[in-house]
Amino acid sequence: SFKILTMDFIYTSIIDRFADNADVFADNNIGIIKHFDLFRNQYVYPELHLPYKRPALFYQYQVNWKSRGGAQIQEGDVQIRLHIELENYGQSFGHSANRDYALEIFKYHTVVYALCQGFSTSKFTPLNRISNEPDETPAQTNVHIITFETKILDDTAQQLIDSGKIKQPLDDMTTTEKPLPVQEETESKYVI
Fold first, then answer.
1. For 86-140, how does the pLDDT look when each residue is reduced to its tens digit (9 = 90+)?
2. Which of 4, 38, 111, 142 stands 20 to 30 A from 101 (CA)?
3. What is the pTM (predicted TM-score) of this model?
4. Strands (E), the chain
């Protein structure tokens, strides 16, 4: 019996971590994440998506693969971008009456960072934050992105070969048939 590596394991692990630690949001006087989804430009083109509640967290990833231990095992360098979206109309300037509300995004940064930094499972190395940045694309909401990096190992192909579910590819030196006869070169009868 083997488990096939799929990209949903990091996504679902983070969702579970947020659900298991919902009290951390309350302890910091902010609301829990109400919507967690794969990033598909929801806040950029809201008319193309079903309505959702905020605060929302969107998961985006990129993996760069390199072979390790042979062609059937690969190590992936993963970047995970967590888009934090708040429906926040507060003003952050000097003596604004709702400045604390406008600056809640920084509390979300702290909580999301605290829940993710160093988090790992048997399938991925500890998450490590590499950047924070605002996303100024949406006009109606406040979005900030925190990017983490991790590593994963995908040995699915090797597991399938070892289990006999797929046949191991032949190397360049293995043949099972007699070689084809070599044809002699002949002159062409046609002139172009």
1. 987 777 778 888 888 778 889 999 999 999 999 999 889 999 999 999 998 876 7
2. 38
3. 0.80
4. 35-38, 56-67, 74-86, 128-135, 142-154
